[in-house]
Amino acid sequence: MTITINNYNNDKKNLILGLTGSVATIKAKLLVEQLIQHFNLIVIPTETSLKFLSDQDFEFISSKCKIYKDKDEWENVDLLKRSALHIDLRNWANSILISPCSANTLGKISNGLCDNLLTSLIRAWDYKNKSMILAPAMNTMMWENPFTFKHIETLKSISPNVFIIDPIEKKLFCGDIGMGAMEQVPKIVDFTINNLK
Description:
By secondary structure, this protein is of the alpha/beta class. The protein has nine helices and eight strands.
């Protein structure tokens, strides 16, 4: 399968933005607005992340970059060409940014689970030659949970090309005040620019 994107520019590197089931996905439009200034961009939302995107934001994002969803993995299987979307996406990308990275997705990828397009891509990722950047976003108690620490340590041990953008402390969507909010979008974009392989 040929990977197609909107407004392709040979002078830019190729970045995949993964969106997961965290309320911080409401910042996806702002993230895309800033990332497309620096990268050829493809967005892969998990099914739960779509619940946090308004119709207007989804329409805006799809007008600026290509979106691949879980169903695209199965609709584009080509047995004759031996093509798989998650492999084609890996080959296309220079780097992947998962922002926000929910507790659920963090747990999945740190344990090698691959039950959707995004986690299948991560399971097939080339950690030796390509960077993977995660910006976790979750409730404070989820962030401070011992499992989260183990998941982060596991991912960091895989490769020096795995980067974690720690969350920040603020009043969270649920009303709690504490660590767990996704880092500010401009800082995520700057970090991605500076750590792209």
